[in-house]
């Protein structure tokens, strides 16, 4: 059937609603608050799909599940399995995706790992296993972006977006702001290079600008700071000679060390975020990226193709060895494919 048909829906404030929803398309339900959108989609369609799914369980299993009332609807036809995703964003971690939230990525990796033996002419000789298709495991992670799917780098044009202005007077929010620890060394660094900080950034000596952005390369910069203690009952003087890492490295290190999304947000104006060029934003390692499905009707139809990616040195696991998780492996007696105990 090409449609999901709901007849006589009377859930909550709905009064005998008849709806036809096409398969294979994106359908949006709109309306003012209280018009019954959630009652139709969540409390009727999704609830009925859940009940039908649970009815397939063994009676012994069903007795441990919380009983649910069937939605008030006369007839539901053409209904398939449904998946509901909460609208709330529970985690902004780049490792958290729709696949990890729902567990679909684990099943997808299992499908690719169990498709079939390698196609003729393939160069990967070891058995494929689900961990190689999981960007959160040692075997499946992209080693360039470490599974984050993107690369983050501080750029000079973002650190100093207005080079026509003095660096401490509108030229750079980073050097003039409170986030940088090395900004206190800027006057001493300028004195070493004969730079006048009242001039525009682009007019300052190249050596000073390079040291401020990329570090002093091991050369130390003296600094003397004075201030008051917390209770403002006395003054203190701080003197140090320190080699600077530069604004770019300081921003990237602070962003990586920030423990919350709110803290990371402070450094994002100075960072450029791009999809990882090696994994194309998938977070997957070289093995998963090179496993494909043979075209339908070819001589190797129904068999998986794979090739060893350039630079990949992952050894093949002999049958009977242990997996990345430490679990022993065994072979299926029917298909001789490795499986998990």
UniProtKB/TrEMBL annotation:
Residues 296-318 have a biased composition (Low complexity). Keywords: ATP-binding, Cytoplasm, DNA damage, DNA excision, DNA repair, DNA-binding, Excision nuclease, Metal-binding, Nucleotide-binding, Repeat, Zinc, Zinc-finger. Its main location: cytoplasm. Residues 156-264 form the UvrA DNA-binding domain. It holds the Pfam family UvrA_DNA-bind. One of its GO terms (biological process) is DNA repair. GO terms for cellular component: cytoplasm. It is found in: Cytoplasm. Belongs to the ABC transporter superfamily. UvrA family. This is UvrABC system protein A. It comes from Catenuloplanes atrovinosus.
